[in-house]
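S1.2 Input.
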Amino acid sequence: MLAGAGAAIQGFIHLLNIPLGYDPHNIMSVGIPVHDGTYKTWAERAAYFEQLRAKVAEVPGVTMAAISTNATPPANGNSTFFQISGKPSQQDQPTRLNFVSREYFPALRIPLAQGRIWNQDEDHRGAPFIIVNQTFARRYFPNESPIGHSIKISDLRNEPPYAFVAPGGGGWLLIVGVSADKRNDGIGKPIVPEAFVPYTLALRMWTQILVRSDVPPLTLLHAIQQKINSVDHDQHTQANVEDLDQWIKDQPEWARGHLISWLFAAFAGLAIALAAVGLYSVVSYIVVQRTNEFGIRIALGAQRSHVLSIVFRSMTWSVGGGIAAGILLTLALSKVMTHWTAGTTNSSDPLLLIGATLALSCVAALACSLPARRAAGVDPMTAIRYE
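S1.3 Output.
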């Protein structure tokens, strides 16, 4: 149990320290569902979304607001397929597609590795531009820069009133930049290829606004909702507004790692407590049974340290056997433990086994120390008369 707890806690700490590639602190995602039958054209919806973003950016304490349609990490984007201009079409070319405004990258503090971000005018008119991440570039353009190449996304279709594609936006998209990698398929899985296009390229019936602030962002939620209502009195926000730190905690890997760490730690603590109580009881019983012997030894000139060593030696084989059995069980169940810790750590790690052995040895020593001291301090005359 100690080795399993150590592996689970170590695995959870590893998960917490995985580089995200973005800054989730002091930023939240506010969902905006558009009512049916409203903003029935591309131009109306584009103007509405931009007006909402601009109004949110005016709230005191907000440092930046960005449109993020299904682009909120650490698990984001719609899975889709694409073609590369001038290359044979392949069906196994997946990517994650995100619809964002130009403020998305500085809001999340995602650096640009190459190229540029579209400007405000290009953002507003739904320019046919696209930014890919480094994983995308490495996989599909291994020997060259992707900037200047064009790709076509199969899912960019005009489907009113659910989705409006910008005029001329359903064709080839020019790659203008490469962004640094960030977590986009959960915090425990490898980063997958992803691409970003101006949110105006395809406007859905909903969007999200990423709000970065210099104060805890949820404290600004009421003021942001008032600004949104000032644009459209019937517009509301989604009920489950969360900051991006909480988005990470909502991930299955985080929740599982947190739960398993607590469970293993609790059971390990219970196991240590039972071991300590059991050892204390057994040693106390042995001391009582050998009281006469200890009294005679002391009366004949035995040092108290000699009596202490007798008591501790009597428990060495029991504790040593228990530790050996525990190590063998840990090695036998290492694959099960590794599965529970999502493969990040191994309970048969020598350092974990040494740490668990030392911890149990210290507990055993403490449990034996009080009865041993009692045995060493026994009065010889009293011990000789003891029955």
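S1.4 Remarks. The chain has a mean pLDDT of 86.
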